[in-house]
Amino acid sequence: MPTIVIPAGWRTASGIKPEELQCAAQTVGQAVDWLVETWPELRPRVLSDSGRLASWINVYVDEADIRGLDGLDTPASPNSEIMFLPAMAGG
């Protein structure tokens, strides 16, 4: 099952243990759905008000940015690591 990686602060605030972050998703979109359904408090951190992937989130599958792949349709293998990282701003 793919492993979901989220910031430590999100896990702490939601009481999520790292071993709980594995899902049976076959795509990044399925992993996003699973994450926000399982932990609804993460929804505003991951999705915009319109329900789309938030612009302030970067998502990687096995270290590849999904924006350069198939977006939410990017496949996830059972050994994949899907990482959610807040975008950094500044200069």
Structural commentary:
With 91 residues, this protein is an alpha+beta fold. It has a single domain, classed as Roll (Ubiquitin-like (UB roll)), CATH 3.10.20. 24% of the residues lie in helices and 18% in strands. The chain contains three helices and four strands, in the order βαααβββ. A hairpin with a 2-residue loop joins strand 2 and strand 3. Keywords: Nucleotidyltransferase, Transferase. It comes from Streptosporangium lutulentum. This is Adenylyltransferase/sulfurtransferase. GO terms for molecular function: nucleotidyltransferase activity.
Mean pLDDT: 92
CATH architecture: Roll
Strand order of the largest sheet: 1-4-2-3
> Which series of helices and strands comes N to C?
EHHHEEE
Short description:
This protein is an alpha+beta fold and 91 residues long. It has a single domain (3-86), classed as Roll (Ubiquitin-like (UB roll)), CATH 3.10.20.30. 24% of the residues lie in helices and 18% in strands.
How is this fold's topology laid out?
Blueprint: E1 3-5, H1 8-14, H2 28-38, H3 43-46, E2 57-61, E3 64-65, E4 81-86
Parallel strand pairs: 1-4
Antiparallel strand pairs: 2-3, 2-4
